[in-house]
Amino acid sequence: MSIDAIDPIHDSRVSHRTADLNGVTYRKINHNYSRIPRSTDAAYADYLLGLPRGDYRATVFLIHGWPDLSMGWRNQIPMLLSMGYRVVCPDMMGYGGTDAPHVPPEPLSYYSHKRAASDIKELGTQLGATQAIVGGHDWGAVIAYRVALWYPDFVTHLFSVCVPYSAPFDKYIPLEILVQKIMPSLRYQVQLGSGQVEEFIASKAQVRQFLNALYGGRGPNGEVGFNVEGGVQFKVLPSIGTTPLMSSKMLDYYVDQYARNGVHGPLNWYRTHEINFEEERKLEKSTIEIPVLFIQALRDSALPPAMSAKMGQSIPNLTKKEVDTSHWALWEAPEQVNGMIKEWLEGTPRNIKSTL
User: Fold this and answer.
1) Helices vs strands, H then E, count in the chain
2) Per-residue pLDDT tens over the stretch 233-290
3) Given Cys at both, which of 28, 173, 275, 339 links 46, Cβ 3.0 to 4.6 Å?
4) What is the CA radius of gyration of the chain?
5) pTM above the 0.90 mark?
6) 8 Å CB contact between 189 and 270
7) Can 20 be counted among the known catalytic residues?
8) Cβ(314)–Cβ(287) under 8 Å?
């Protein structure tokens, strides 16, 4: 069955809302993207809100990752609305209409996992949600887990696509050592945090080729513009063809969104390894006891199945499913992913407060 995905420009099923969260304003100003000068402690950002017909049964937060936007959940929002859920889908710090504080002079803590989790919790509070279901993909999955760790009374259920749970480390391991000795499939993260990408990706045309490469576009002889061993392959980018995972309208939308602030903000997420470690030392526990659905993408070269083998040790109420896709499972197999999420939500007991 085909999916009537959310339209990036206008769709009556979602509205664009504003919220002031922890000194940051999450906002959408129609589609003219006019901006208000920011003060020393304010930023501007967006979130999508979808309401089902009639009363909603619970609130679902959908959190995107890199190099995505809230629109990355375009295939899942309609399904959740049809099930009677209220859906909240923010552009995360640095992305889309969200402000992208430049580091320096702004502190890197704007992009930390704790800060992101706190913003999600505060947005839930302002929307009257004392509890919520949280879903995530890529960095968004990492944040979903962190919301559950920092605010265990807030998250009732959690689903993650592609990214397995990794508990906070007991000892700090620099990223360069981590990818060399423990997680070699994440070597590309060193490049993304190095500053090289900002030097090469600046114009809209460069952003377009950058996104084409990351989303599976190929060169005339099958060349790839991104791999987990080395990251972005700058010499190949000009010859990369259009991504097969997006319509031209959707790709234009993504390019326009990135044209606002460039790629620096999103790449700051790859520079928070140490600050995340320091902040997470204060967590009381590293286990997640709520029901969790993890959907493994079998052809995800950065996050192979072996990385999720021990998730059950930290998540006793874990359900694992598999899809035969690359990292972009939300788009490559939306019907299958949606079916797994729907079946799990329908079959998992919920004890969500009526104030939702």
Assistant:
1) 13, 13
2) 999 999 999 999 999 999 999 999 999 899 999 999 999 999 999 999 999 999 999 9
3) 28
4) 19
5) yes
6) yes
7) no
8) yes
